[in-house]
């Protein structure tokens, strides 16, 4: 069992919360009729009360995080770089718009938490004009940030109210510059979490900053080898109640980005086994291989509408399969990973409490055989203590 | 004057790419070098991001032949690079061929200046002459 000194670590998820003491990790299914703090104190108030506020560390991914719309001038540089930074900051991307096509682009109906405008190296100017201001004028958004050419910044400031101006994310070598935008987005995420009443109340039991869980998990990745026998390169699938996160090593991607970070993260927002159950079922029904997989698992498609322990298990198995499909050449997505190069697939999240290693391996083998037509079989590793996040939480 | 340069397609002839980079800088150009193994879309995207007036593609193993056919189609999708000067140089075919035919073929692909098996300095002189002819400073 992990030893975390005299710290008490708490992770508040959308479905479960986890409490880690030096001796044990417990997880609890959330009671949604209660405030998070009340729920937490009801279940483990006796443990929490033992710790000083300065020894309690909390992270949270509850309530889904922020949404962003990115407007950029090219696919290969500005949009690609901003998308990468947004994902790594834990932000959900609603849409990306190529600026030259902005007049033909429809307006999203939802409120956007942050709009990112990007384009141009510092030696270029006049990349944006009236069509941008007209589009933004119709948009319902809370924050706008500009990370394009510094020569365009004054014009942008004059035409867009309350815009935050940061240095460009495309440098003179056309390489990505992550830090300023990443810090801005991470701070927004942080403010969003802290602004939620439920989360604010948690400061009654901690005097430390409450971090976003994806940030904490990403921080844990370089430390994973210390606790698990993971063969590089590996991917980490965090299949939770509302979303599925994939954390992966940069070696697994072919692209033109040179960054200082070793790992990236990708979020599939509506692919969870509890809160996003219906959209997971819909995604399964739209995948032509799923029926064959169900047959392979010796069940029929009726299992998708059942409410039973067996049905939950099958849904979790399907979630693994669908996520792997989304990362492969089978489905063109933001990133396609070199899945044949992977030696380990690590799984964390609620899934580790429900599926056995054998039940996971059967899915991985099916995926590699059917989709990648290969006998390659990476090792599956389960974070059975559900404690990868504690590595990141202890990181500082 | 800004120039975007690089080696197109699955071509890793990095030495020539470095020489082009150095020679362009020596002549006073601002160079945005995308290096080897560059896709056509990345060249055009780099032009948009930098505001370059010249796109100079190099190819040493005939790789450009396949990609060249896509140039007009792809360039037509961009709304802001109509005035771009497009130059290609290197060994533009696999094996040997009639130089005049090869130049005509590449001009038909949409290149303003085609330097098949022409030495680097001569090619850059030709570029300077073309820029002067079009009053681009």
TrEMBL record, chain A:
InterPro entries given in the database record: MutL
Name assigned to this protein: Methylaspartate mutase
Species the sequence originates in: Candidatus Litorirhabdus singularis
TrEMBL record, chain B:
InterPro entries noted in UniProt: Cobalamin-bd (IPR006158), Cobalamin-bd_sf (IPR036724)
NCBIfam families in alphabetical order: PRK02261.1 (NF002612)
Highest taxon above the source species: Bacteria
Pfam families, per database record: B12-binding
Keywords tagged on the record: Isomerase
GO molecular function, one term: methylaspartate mutase activity
Protein known as: Methylaspartate mutase subunit S
Residues covered by the B12-binding domain: 1-137
Enzyme Commission number(s): 5.4.99.1
